[in-house]
Amino acid sequence: MHDVLPDKSALWQWLEGRVAGVLGGYGYREIRMPILEMTELFKRSIGEVTDIVEKEMYSFDDRNGDSLTLRPEGTASCVRAAMEHGLLHNQTQRLWYQGPMFRHERPQKGRYRQFHQIGVEAFGMPGPDIDAELILITARIWQALGIQGLELQLNTLGTAPERAAYRAQLVTYLEAHHDLLDEDSRRRLHSNPLRILDSKNAAMRDMLDAAPVLRDHLGKESAAHFDFVCQTLNEAGVSFRINPCLVRGLDYYSRTVFEWLTDRLGAQGTLCAGGRYDGLVEQLGGRATPAVGFAMGIERLVAVIEESQSAAVAVAADLYLVSVGEAAQRVGLVLAEQIRDALPGIELVSNCGGGGMKAQFKRADRSGARFALVLGDSEIEQGTIVLKPLRSQDEQQSLKRDALINYLTRVFGR
Ligand code: HAM
After folding, report:
1. Distance 145 CA to ligand 1 centre (A)
2. What is the DSSP letter of 190?
3. From CA 174, how far away is CA 326, in angstroms rounded?
4. Of 308, 327, 359, the domain-final residue
5. Alpha-helix residue ranges (DSSP H) falling in 34-150
6. Is the CB of 112 under 6 A from ligand 1?
7. Each residue's pLDDT tens digit, 316-369
8. With a threshold of 0.70, does the pTM exceed it?
9. Does the residue 277 lie in any domain?
């Protein structure tokens, strides 16, 4: 679990703002859910035999003896909230959320125990158009963040009955190759055989690549659904690779699933992942409601942006007010308020905590400010302020208050 320090938080804010801007442009509205939910919610939605539920949840009994869990993901909470507040009755919903998620995984680069997601969920739309829209949104988000070179992988998991028929065939195939299965896969053979398909074990790769694929077992509707998504992406110029082994680590998916991957973060290369989950609302006790969504990991996005330096995020102040002497400290704070009134949005840091001229200029320099404003006893006597450029060789000038504000308005153009 990490602290996000001030030198990084500007990039986080920039990223969150950009993504929120894109989502707003498609009519998605933010929903904020609690970080704790009943443990049962995650067991029933993510699946009892998934890594998350079997070994990664932070669960504890509260004072009433109820088992609560720090949310490991947002989809289950979002469905719970939408059901609880009647957002799913005879209407469609386009929602997004962001915040911390918790999984007790083995930490490594790009994989943390507290991490942050921005997630999107769309309810009430059964057709493939919304699947395609969500993927187009993700492509636009990469554009807005200046992230290039990602690979989009796509697959379809069909409907529950299609999957059940396929699952039987797959188990027969895997049983025939039992000697090649590693321990983990043998354990999953009857509980969650589809997960074996995305095993990272290179020794099993050839055998898995030759396994029967679910796409060959799709009914007409599922096949048409998937074709629509693929065709729309082609027409919109978003390239992708169909990966028949992409099955996702959560049990609630049906039909379309997708992941955006990078090769720049080592083993934890999935930046964004999601898919359709038409059965989940009903499974959690609601009326059957089609749904589809995705989530992206903010830490991983930040790492990719930092690595490629694709974002120039300003972390510098505009002005730093140096005030020497008690009178100047008082007058300075009031002057700073007047400048803020005249120039909304300007970033002005007042020197608080005293210090001599030299120490204050050192702080001014560290703040990244373009100008220092200097106030001392003599300036107060003359009713002036010294404006000293910190990032150029230009001469400093002594200005009356009004002239200073006029000058700053011209320079900062606000
Ligand atoms: P997920 O694949 O478990 O899906 O997580 C989505 C993204 O969260 C991952 O692609 C990754 O970027 C990030 N992530 C996951 N675990 C970690 C971790 N330990 N450390 C850092 N980043 C991590 C879901 O959570 C689904 N709820 C997505 C979804 C929404 N499907 C439908 N709607």
Report:
1. 19
2. T
3. 80
4. 308
5. 39-46, 51, 75-84, 128-145
6. yes
7. 899 999 999 999 999 999 999 999 999 998 999 999 999 999 999 999 999 999
8. yes
9. yes
